[in-house]
Fold this sequence. Notes:
17% helix, Rossmann fold
Amino acid sequence: MQNGEGVGSSLEMLRFTTAGSVDDGKSTLIGRLLFDSKTVFEDQLESLAKTALRKGTHGIDLSLITDGLAAEREQGITIDVAYRYFSTPKRKFIIADTPGHEQYTRNMVTGASTANLAVVLTDARKGVLPQSKRHGFIASLLGIPHIVLAVNKMDLVDYARDVYEKIKADFGAYARDFKTHDITFIPVSALTGDNIVTRSVQMPWYTGPTLLEFLENVPIRNDRNLTDFRFPVQLVVRPHQDFRGYAGDVASGTIAPGDTVMALPSRRQTRVRELLTYNGKLDRATVGQSVVIVLADEVDLSRGDMLVKPDQVPNITQDLKATLCWMADEPLEPGKRYLVKHTTQMVGAMVQSLDYRVDIHTLAHEPAQALRLNEIGAVTLKVKRPLYVDAYDRNRLTGAFVLIDELSNNTVGAGMVV
């Protein structure tokens, strides 16, 4: 690797997803970002240089940097979401590169589900297309806190400011009702490198950050819910009769020895005695950390139960109102039975009603009898036993679930609790 090696593991991690229509230049943009930030392996650069030489072209084709999976695609192997990793001295990054076509809405939902930020591309020559609106809407629907609209191919419109300003105004008007209000506009040319890593001399009228500057500096620590402690139990650790601990990931909030916690569903209260990890004890654990919690008293807890703080109890309910992205060829219809996978619980459920379908081009709510592949709608579910949920816009982990077909065991839908 070029200068990207040796970056400390303590760097903050930013996960972002990219979305764009065919020929918007998404592959070239990701390739330019990796190339100009000097995080491409040397042997990969040599291979790209040989390809350029063989084709008789000047310079390497940056879009090929992201096409390492082309051979698998040609063999008929389906690649739903490609993840790419790079780092700079300021941050580590994971890019979820998802297909942009409407038939791949479910793939975009998969790639964006854990993202801090979405980069939505639009072609400066074409303006704000329906696909651009759809990508922005899905990013907002999934609660992604930050959206960047990268107005690409500015070199093909002579770097005209008025073209950029019109796209900014058009998308801004459409996004007025988005849940995500942090939307940043950056005029770029992935092909020439303008405003990707290096500031453009062709667009002196733009005074904002380059794409990489924005990715390195956008504040993301407050994106996570650090208030409501949620600990879904994954495993009861009982190596011998003198030890009992509860293993899992801290879904939100923080926890420390001495804190009072409540066990759900029993509602019994106790204190945290110790927080253990493979590397020893912790003084505090926070979102995303995997720990074993040892309690001061014996409490009846098993997989699927949850530890919370007594003054921060989630909604305990068997009735779920949710936004659902449908991912299966067979449509969703009211009255059908499914399995709901929520945190560490798996529970039977029935679709009581399909309340409406969303027109993702106009955001209008339409009556519907069924929800078909890649469509998004609002549903009401009845689950067989209570779940411990939060509204998705408050807590993306305890507010999300997947719907599973009882017979095939296939994931058929991704839901967000309203």
